[in-house]
Amino acid sequence: MPPARIDLVPAFRRRVRVFAYPRSGRVRQHSSQAGAGLIEFSIIAVPILLLGLGSIEVAHWLLTRQVVSLALLEAGRAGISTHARPESMAQAFEYALLPLFPATSGHSARQNQQLAFEQRKRDTASTPWKITVLSPSSAAFNDFADPQLRQAAYDRLPAINNNYQFEQDQRRRASGWLNGLGPESKASIYQANTLTLQLSYLHKPVLPGIKGLLRLLGNPHGGYSQRALAHGYLPMSREISLTMQSHPVRWPMPAGGHIVRPATLADSSQTAFVAKPCTGMWCLRQLPAGGGAPRPDPVADTPILGRVPHTEDPMVSLPHPAAAPSAPPGTTELAVTPDDPSCGLSLCCTPA
């Protein structure tokens, strides 16, 4: 019987394989890397998650800011066409805010809006939004109120004449008012016919963590904005100026605190607010930045019914609009007198 042959190759290979890749070494290598992927994922996922949530909050804030700005514009448009009536401005503002409170299965958009406002009022013990009428100020009404406009339509309240502002400015310059500025308001007739609104709106963040950060910045015993921050609301502040298209009337402010006047302006004429110069295509007559005579009316040479021609010398007194020439024949039915409530809403007012 021949001797048995020993196959050394498989054994050698097995020895090499065992020597190069010992089983115990593989076990130790896997044990040292267990959980490393979870730690790496946590390090990367947390910043990405915070960045995504922050993007959602910023997008919601930008949307709210845009809607609030549009709502303030609608409130201003309602004010300039309704003699700056506070109720009209408040109604227009809340109606324009409805897109922020979509209707649900059980409530309409108006109901959701009122529920949200009531919740914010309970949390902050103040109004969820507030519009401050900066111009025309109380001092401006003292300077420019027209006694002829105290009509029953305005509840016999002081009103500023919105017609013939250039002629009014010239008469006041001729009477000794420096640059046509009122002695109390330090404003011109153009600025007195500018509606300036300042809005404070309480924005509710989407993420609870943002509310916690805002609470750290607020003071529950501070002012309006500080109290809002202390309860997790972010106050937004917006401002707008529009030229009046009707006679401004000093209406009493309604209850509720939504439309207010600055308390310091009602009692002190030294700190009276002066409206910023109006800019834009609707601002035809305004004072230059350095004072002096107002800019000429671009349509001064256009023949408009009832217009009084003006002179190049700003210190020359012009006749009262009552001395203006009468309207051409056949056009009187298109005009109204200044004491008519609709005067100021159109450009067809004849002299008194």
TrEMBL record:
Matches recorded under Pfam families: TadE
Domain TadE-like: 35-77
Region feature (Disordered): 291-331
Protein name: Pilus assembly protein
